[in-house]
Amino acid sequence: MINIKFILNRYKYFLISLLICIAIYIFDNNLGLDIFDSTKSNIIQMLSILPPVMILLGLLDVWVPREYFMKYMGSNSGILGIALSFLIAFFAAGPMYAAFPFTAVLIKKGVKFSNIIIFLNAWCVTKFSTLLFEIGALGYKFTIARLLIDVPGVIIMGYIVDYLVNKKK
């Protein structure tokens, strides 16, 4: 039997957003159509990115033993774990939402929480494709200056978040 209360609770934010979009469409057809076109475009983009990511993550999960992740990125990994977190993020491709399934695999494999936070932040600020674009658009001096600020900031943030999360436990 379908539990309507569970479904409504689970998808409440989606349903609220949908109702708001419908209300906007009723009051302004053009804006409503723009919203639905943008949503359709985003869904198509996600559906083109996530399946290959999930396949690669499934292979990674099966092929790379947990012990490797724990040895190189686990609680005793030190600078090597930080470097690997940056390296994986540097060569990553795709938007930020593609990082979250990978993060789930890292958690499952026993990676130190600070390295996971470093990975997520590094995904945002140190991806190779983003750096190339930034150098072309803003120049290498700006990019290097930003990296000199962001890289230590990402590491510090990873350890602060790790401390705060573990402090609550």
From TrEMBL:
Protein keywords: Cell membrane, Membrane, Transmembrane, Transmembrane helix
Keyword Transcription listed: no
Cellular compartments annotated: Cell membrane
One GO cellular component term noted in the UniProt record for this chain: plasma membrane
Listed Pfam families: ArsP_1
Chief place of localization: membrane
Transmembrane intervals: 12-31, 43-64, 76-96, 116-140, 147-165
Record's bilayer topology term: Multi-pass membrane protein
Family: Belongs to the UPF0718 family.
Protein name (database record): Predicted permease
